[in-house]
Amino acid sequence: MRKTLSNLVSTLALAGLVAAPTAASAQASASTANALDLPENITIVGPQTPNLRTATAVVNGAVITGTDIDHRVALVTAASENEIGGEELQRLRMQVLRNLIDETLQIQEAEAQEIAIAPEEINQTYARLAQQNFGQNTGAMDAYLIGIGSSPVSLKRQIQGELAWQRLLRRNVAPFVNVSEEEVNELLQRLEASRGTEEHRLGEIFLSATPESRAAVEQNAARIIEQIRQGGSFVGYARQFSEASTAAVGGDLGWVRLAQLPAELATVAREMQPGQLVGPVPVPGGFSILYLIDKRQVLTADPRDALLSLKQISIGFEPATTEAQATARAGEFAQAMQSIRGCGDAENAAGAIGATVVTNDQIRARSLPESLQNAVLQLQIGQTTPPFGSVEDGIRVLMLCGRDDPEAEAGPDFDQLMGQIEDERVNKRAQRYLRDLRNDAYIVYN
Predict the structure, then answer these.
(1) Which of 103, 348, 373, 425 has the fewest other C-beta atoms within 10 Å?
(2) CATH number of the domain located at residue range(s) 303-404 in this protein
(3) Strand runs (DSSP E) across 127-274, as ranges?
(4) Which CATH number fits domain 2-30+51-177+439-445: 1.10.1040, 3.30.1490, 1.10.3300, 1.10.4030?
């Protein structure tokens, strides 16, 4: 069930159907409070928890209920490997409320511009998601959503908001975004000039901070890092908490060169390895949390995309095997592997020492454990890796029996690059558009 949810949430994220986060409210520090000349000891008159109100709102007359929030929160929390509770859950609920307010404003603006999303379109998208995750069985997805505490109505509402906003942007924003041929050609030239240099694919969570709120924001960033390291989804936290425009795509900055990054981030990213999480990194205006997804060379074939034909030769140990016996057996195995005369001799050599052979002709080098990738890519046909394993798991080697190297990256063409620039500019204007809708909205919190 956990795997099914992860697949579903990933599908929603790729489709742009998981609500994008909005800017978090700044946290006041003690220095700000002192400026108000408040007494050290105070007595609360009235309710003791005035901020723990029922999380509902009326947005230009449209009601967002507590149930609406519960259903969206359930979709997020069910994907987390760890239970979310206490202050973290409260922050998530408030973030979901902000997302629902934005979604309501987007739908209302589309309706005001006479842009309507037909129920058939919503149902088609819902059915497509069901097909990707439940084999065309919308009933199974209905039951699944209800089972995790969400609902089909909530997801369909989210689909409606996304479709409405996309259509609104295509009509009111995209036609007024211009990208010149000179800009695209200049960028293509710079890209070609950088062929062979290193690129990083980074994820970022940006949290804004003022001088007064800096300490509190840094502590919040540290809590987010701890949650991610304990198994939380970086993409999920980026969507919920990041205040950068990349929040809508889970914080993914795409492939960038270090020279394109602010100096503070470039310095940190230069030392990172794929899969590493670093932060909080002080940057102008706040803090960033960085996650290195991958590295590659610009417009150059990545050897890790090579398609390999491998034979795995392995031996196991009986439960009662002593350390001395295992050492002797491992030595015998290693010596036998060195004497193998190519892939055609693997089965015979393995049979002679009681080893087993498993063949796979369709292995991407990058799918191997990172510690093995370089070792395998350095092999010639018929050679084996050094033995690896343990008494519990057995000892094994990998023999390279074939390798098809990837073709060099052609890079984006003119139209693709122009589309990327246009999308970036549309997204920036969309953020301003949404800020204007918030400023003009009449919102009542209950």
Answers:
(1) 348
(2) 3.10.50.40
(3) 198-208, 252-256
(4) 1.10.4030
The rounded distance, in Å, linking the Cα atoms of 82 and 261 is: 33
The domains spanning 2-30+51-177+439-445 and 303-404 adopt the same CATH topology: no
The CATH classification of domain 197-297, taken from the options 3.40.50.1970, 3.10.100.10, 3.30.160.20, 3.10.50.40: 3.10.50.40
pLDDT tens sequence for the chain (446 residues): 434 444 454 444 434 444 333 333 333 333 334 445 555 554 444 444 444 445 488 999 999 999 999 998 888 777 665 667 677 788 788 878 888 999 999 999 999 999 989 999 999 999 998 888 777 678 888 999 999 899 999 999 989 998 999 899 999 988 988 888 888 888 788 777 766 677 888 999 998 888 888 888 898 899 889 888 888 888 878 877 887 777 777 888 888 877 778 888 888 988 888 889 998 999 888 899 999 988 877 666 677 778 889 999 999 888 888 888 888 888 888 888 888 888 888 888 888 888 999 998 888 888 888 778 888 888 889 888 989 888 888 889 999 998 887 766 666 778 877 887 888 788 888 888 988 999 899 988 87
Q: CA nearest 19: which of 61, 55, 68? A: 68
Rounded Cα distance, 308 and 360, in Å: 8
In the three-class reduction of DSSP (H, G, I as helix; E, B as strand; rest coil), residue 26 is classed as coil
